[in-house]
Design goal:
Length: 228
């Protein structure tokens, strides 16, 4: 018997696949938002069904089990982060302009609550930093790529003479900048206030100035940080 799909079957198969992909995207939108607030460890098929209105059986059909759901949620959170923070920054030349754009977009990503719970990865990292397994592997891979990308931009800036890091070093500055953001994200969530983002942006600008940056290149970090 031939295994080829007939012309009559194709639209039905394609239609089912399209509906399944649409359902998966919709469910993951709920999942990433929920995980940003409640953490990834508590994200289960039952809890997601309750929050999204989808049935447990339909969610189980899409993700198989809790671990599959959690890993898919990490991947979905990573895709949003790339679209909101990284891809727009790539419009700038690599090095200092792109580094400043990354920090600016990063602050706005949390401040405007792209996810209800602020930074998705700040929320989920705390759940799995000491729990080996595929979920922690997915979180670590995403965070390693992000931190590595920041370090690459710092290195490009130093190599181009846009920063002078002889006294501090690339690795240290690449650690300090996201650390300022992470603290701003945590304090803003705790106190319900945008002021930590202002402080973080000022501190980033000051740190880059002390590293030899041209002040004009840091203009994005001076934008107002109020209103959503």
């Amino acid at each position: 018997m031939s295994e080829s799909i007939t012309a009559e079957e194709t639209p039905s198969v394609d239609g089912r696949r399209a509906r399944g992909d649409a359902s998966r995207r919709a469910v993951l939108t709920y999942a990433t938002d929920l995980a940003s607030v409640e953490g990834l460890d508590g994200l289960s098929i039952g809890r997601l069904a309750e929050a999204s209105g989808y049935s447990k059986s339909s969610i189980a059909g899409l993700f198989q089990n809790k671990v599959g759901l959690q890993v898919a949620t990490v991947d979905a959170g990573r895709a949003v982060f790339m679209a909101v923070v990284v891809e727009p920054a790539r419009e700038q030349p690599r090095g200092l302009p792109r580094l400043v754009a990354l920090m600016d977009h990063l602050i706005e990503y949390s401040r405007t609550r792209v996810f209800a719970g602020g930074c998705f990865f700040a929320a989920v990292s705390a759940d799995f930093d000491s729990k080996p397994g595929p979920v922690r592997d997915a979180v670590r891979a995403a965070m390693s790529d992000w931190y590595g990308y920041i370090e690459a931009q710092v290195r490009h800036a130093a190599d181009a003479g846009e920063l002078d890091l002889d006294a501090v070093g690339v690795e240290t500055l690449a650690f300090e900048l996201p650390a300022l953001y992470e603290q701003a994200n945590a304090r803003s969530l705790l106190y319900g206030d945008d002021r930590p983002y202002v402080i973080a942006a000022v501190a980033m600008r000051d740190r880059l100035l002390r590293a030899g940056s041209d002040a004009a290149a840091l203009a994005p970090l001076e934008r107002p940080r109020t209103g959503r």
